[in-house]
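Can't paste images in this forum, so I'm doing it all in text. The chain is below; anyone willing to post the predicted structure tokens underneath?
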Amino acid sequence: MIIKRVLVALIAAIAINLSADAATNSYVSNDTKNEKGQIVKRMICESVENTLTPYRMIEFKYNDEGNVIEMKSLEWDSRYNIWVDHELTQYDYSQSPVKITVLKWDDKDKKYK
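Text version of the structure:
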């Protein structure tokens, strides 16, 4: 019984330590805006020990009313140094409430599903 308690306490301590290490990493973003002041691209980099590493890029598209109609998320592939498709979120304002469709990138078929 004591061994189980010690083991549980040890696992909890390791989990707390790992989450504390993850919390020390920070993220920095850089926005690109269009002439209307709308964000069209947001690049997010992870900052670790004064080194910025690309993490995620989000591209936005708007309708004539200024509403976001599409948000495309790409992730950084450090092995090939390229951005790869990750997720596509589409917003349809012709319905009430707004219809939101989230599609994930299917690498096998090379399209969003």
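The CA atoms of residues 58 and 73 lie 4 Å apart. The radius of gyration is 20 Å.
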